Amino acid sequence: MANRIKGITVEIGGDTTKLSKALEGVNKNIKSTQTQLKDVEKLLKLDPKNTELLSQKQKLLADSIATTKEKLTTLKTAAEQANTALANGEISQEQYDALQREIIETEQELRNLETEAGKASDSLKQIGEAGEILQNVGDKIFDVGATLTTKVTVPIAAAGTAAVKTASDFDSAMSKVAAVSGATGDDLEKLRDKAREMGSKTKFSASEAAEAMNYMAMAGWKTGDMLSGIDGIMNLAAASGEDLATTSDIVTDALTAFGLSAADSGHFADVLASASSNANTNVSMLGESFKYCAPIAGALGFSCEDTAEALGLMANAGIKSTQSGTSMRSIMTALSSEVKFCSSSFGEMEIATSNADGSMRDLSDILADCRVAFDQMSESEKASAAQALVSKNAMSGFLALMNAAPQDVEKLSSAIANCDGTSLSMAETMQDNLGGQLTILKSQLEELAISFGEILMPVIRSIVTKIQEFIDKL
Predict the structure, then answer these.
(1) pLDDT value of residue 162
(2) C-alpha triplet 454, 455, 459: angle, nearest 5°
(3) How far apart are CA 250 and CA 288, in angstroms?
(4) Which of 10, 218, 297, 472 has a CA that sits 20 to 30 A from residue 35's CA?
(5) Are 292 and 396 in contact (CB under 8 A)?
(6) Dihedral (CA of 210, 195, 198, 447) sign
(7) In angstroms, rounded to a whole number, what is the distance separating the alpha carbons of residues 210 and 67?
(8) Are 213 and 262 a contacting pair, CB within 8 Å?
(9) Is the dihedral of CA 249, 251, 254, 259 positive or negative?
(10) CB within 8 Å of 169: residues ≥ 6 apart
(11) If DSSP codes are grouped into helix, strand and coil, which group holds residue 15?
């Protein structure tokens, strides 16, 4: 990594320092945590069910995720400042590209850590010592009858403990939604019913649906918004294979940036699904791109459809994720003012970027007019015109848009224009196999466990209350 970011500086809190120096402490923490993780993993191979080791692994992964996020934030801060440094000639294009690769690698490391953390969390959720203790206490408090054999009582107790645990986890997830959204009474009950409905008919569990609702609540969505918007988000997550909570975060952030409402979430999900399936990109990378360019696109009145089309064309040329997002931001900024091109073949040509009423023309129309001009230029004139319009940082992205083959533009434009229902169709196709059926069956079983657990919950809470009272006396 040191070679990649050599010579790049970053300003943090008013202090300018070498990027390698700024990341020195973070990298040291990451290395230390990785060493400990290797040691824990080695011991877990000998004893996979050891709860102490699993707890240590989960804590180390959480620390590693937090440190990696801190590193990624510093790298992205440096990347934003590097745009100016590149334009001023303070760093080379090679250094700038190396920094972008470092960001991509760090993002990949973060996704791997989050996946591993999810697996560790699932392992800890299995019925272990806590379930056995609860079963033993229940046996002492209640006389279940001498006529019941161990072969009957043990499976029933285990099933009951699992059901209560599942229902308890779902309650905890919905409590977070209630705390963030402020939903109470009938509104909260509607959200609970919707989460359980999605859990019973999709690949995602009710608890996962609740987690997605939590992201919606953090984006300011109210009960009605979540009830109408979650179907599209879950279809997109199923169609793309992305994590449900991450997909929810992508959609809610982008809708806000484009000035759209929760009612538009289904259509926006279809736009993302269509763009990702007809261009060399995926929903996660499109979400990262939108993070950088969606705010200015929304401010200028450019549609999410045209923006997705442009990002898809860039992706076909290998420009994706953060790089395409920052390029698109610069391109949109440049197109917001007067655009003129010069060539020996046509002299000077001005591209109209606004309508008579002062509103911006459609982004796809502006880019189509620009392509007409570029088709008449020599290679050197194209490079010069691109640099003059959008600067060195974004010229590769702009040239990718200008050089896109007409058939590629038509294919992507047509797919996005007719995208309604795409995410649902893709989700159904993704689940139309044995693996998909088993995944849905698992979600349905969780819904059954929640129903069973809610019946047992009052009894278990009564038992726990009595135990607490007994411990207080002791």
Answers:
(1) 52
(2) 100
(3) 8
(4) 10
(5) no
(6) positive
(7) 27
(8) no
(9) negative
(10) 125, 207
(11) strand
